[in-house]
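Hello,

Our lab assistant flagged a job as stuck in the queue for most of the afternoon. It eventually completed. Since we weren't sure the result was trustworthy after the delay, we are filing this so someone can double-check. Below is the sequence as submitted and the structure that was eventually returned. Let us know if re-running is recommended.
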Amino acid sequence: MSEHKPKAFQMTIKEMLTEIERLPLDERLTLLEALTRSIRATLQRTGVEAVRGMLQPEGTPPTDEAIKQAYTDYLDEKYR
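-- returned structure --
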C-alpha cells in the first residue's frame, strides 16, 4: 500500500484573519494567548532593547512646547 501524505497547508494572512474571525470566542482567546506567549519568547530571545531601538525615531524628539505650537498651528489652519 502506498502512503498518503497530506499536502502542505498554506494560507495567506488575509485568509487566516478571515478564518480567525469565524472561530468561537474561546478559541480566539486561546489563539491570542498562544501568540502572546510566542511574541514574549521572541522578545526575550532577541532582547527588548533591540526592539526598542527599532522603534526609536531618528533625531531628537520635539519638546512639549513645539508639539503644542504645531497643534495650535494645525487648528488655526483648519478653522480659518
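-- support follow-up --
The delay was a queue issue, not a problem with the job. The result is valid. Helices lie at 13-22, 25-46, 48-55, 64-78. Residues 41 and 64 are 36 Å apart (CA to CA).
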